[in-house]
Amino acid sequence: MLIRRLEAQEPRARGAGGRTLPPAPADRAAALDAGIADAAASAAPSAKDDAKGTKKDEKGDKGDKGDKGDDKQGEDQIDTAVVGADGGVPVHTDGPFRSPFAHPYFGQVATVRVALVMNDVSQYDIMKGSFVADFYLSLTSDRPMPSMDLIFPNGKAESKEVIADKPTFKFYRFTGTFFSPPDLRHYPFDSQQLEVQIEENTEGIDQIRLIPDRKHTSLENGFEVTGWDVSYLEARALVHDYPDRFDNDDLYYSRYIFRLGIHRYGTSALFTVFVPAIVIVLISLMGMWVTPDEMEVRSNSGAPMLAGAVLFHFALMQQLPAVSYMTRADKLMMGVYLSLLLGMVSTWAFFLVDEHHRDAIYLWARRVVPPVTFIVMVIACVA
């Protein structure tokens, strides 16, 4: 589906509370506003004089037209649409949108400021990319809002508490489960982005436009996500254009997106992934100092470590969803496998040469394998 930006907010400063979002730049949505304003103007009652009538009749005619406009403004938008020339889906002949869900007689668009205060994020499951969010949501408008039917495109609200419901101010508390696909390219030093998407389900941008309220979008005091550190907040509004669901489905819908950036603690990643992998390599390198007459001991320094590396890698992958790319942990384990292979090759070489060449192989392995392994592991760690 296509997404057109309506308002955008830059990432907020690091920290957990008391922060504000920078102002959002304007964009091409102003052109749509102009079209909506023109549509509203064209729907207004005509003020032209009737040359054949008296002034009294002219006033009566204007009053009748005004009453008709008020009637249309109060009707449901689909009731004001007419069946097109080809039949089927009704269309509007007035206004910039032909969709049956447009409302060319609504009047001026209601600009609604959206603020979200996140109380808590729990049960974050990186396998599914799901999390449970508890938050306050406020909608503040410069004029009475149309009927509001909020939906969450990337999740589902499990509870809704209506705290205030006034024509120009609505205040809710929601709890629900939401989904944000994880990005694991830098795992275990990965950062994730948790999103809460909110969209007005019935009224398009000819009636309502959502914009972020940067002054009142924040986190609850003491907010934290277990096992993660908060890195940034971001709030933006987009004009969402659905693919054609029916004929003349040309109406855009306003969507608000709240993003919470989190990153994994570095010490946790270091000790759960990198340290075990390096220890496996160091133990295998100890075999380089085992003399050729102790071949059984030397052999046991490589093969068991390879089995341990495979099991460790398998345990890591069980904690993550299947992805189409290599994570940073995968690259690290590839370095571990290559390092173990170098040590095992140096041991197998004893079986491929004459006995009087074993001392030379022993010295060669001690001088070459450790520095090459060091280079391989450095590349694997920084890749």
Largest sheet: 6 strands, mixed
> Could you say how many structural domains there are in total?
2
Shape: elongated
CATH hierarchy class name of the largest domain: Mainly Beta
Strand content: 25-35%
- Percent helix: 25-40%
Spans of at least 5 consecutive residues whose pLDDT stays below 50 are 1-71
Summarize the structure.
The protein is built from 7 helices and 13 strands. It has 383 residues and is α+β, with helices and mostly antiparallel strands.
Descriptive tags:
single chain; 383 residues; alpha+beta; Acetylcholine Binding Protein, Chain: A; Methane Monooxygenase Hydroxylase, Chain G, domain 1; 2 domains; 13 strands; elongated; disordered N terminus
How is this fold's topology laid out?
Blueprint lengths: L1 E6 L21 H15 L11 H20 L7 E2 L6 E2 L18 E16 L4 E12 L8 E2 L3 E12 L2 E11 L11 E10 L7 E5 L5 E2 L8 E14 L11 E12 L1 H20 L9 H6 L2 H15 L10 H25 L5 H25 L1
Parallel strand pairs: 4-10, 4-11
Antiparallel strand pairs: 1-12, 2-3, 4-5, 5-8, 6-9, 7-8, 9-13, 12-13
Helix pairs in contact: 3-5, 3-6, 3-7, 5-6, 6-7
Can you put this structure into words, describing what you see?
The two termini are 34 Å apart. The protein has 7 helices and 13 strands. With 383 residues, it is α+β, with helices and mostly antiparallel strands. The protein has 2 domains: 2-34 and 105-264, Acetylcholine Binding Protein, Chain: A; 267-382, Neurotransmitter-gated ion-channel transmembrane domain (Methane Monooxygenase Hydroxylase, Chain G, domain 1). Residues 1-71 have low confidence and may be disordered. The strands form 3 sheets. Strands 4, 5, 7, 8, 10 and 11 form a 6-stranded mixed β-sheet that branches. Strands 1-12-13-9-6 form a 5-stranded antiparallel β-sheet. Strands 2-3 form a two-stranded antiparallel sheet. Helix 3 packs antiparallel against helix 5, helix 3 packs parallel to helix 6 (328-352) and helix 3 (266-285) packs antiparallel against helix 7 (358-382).
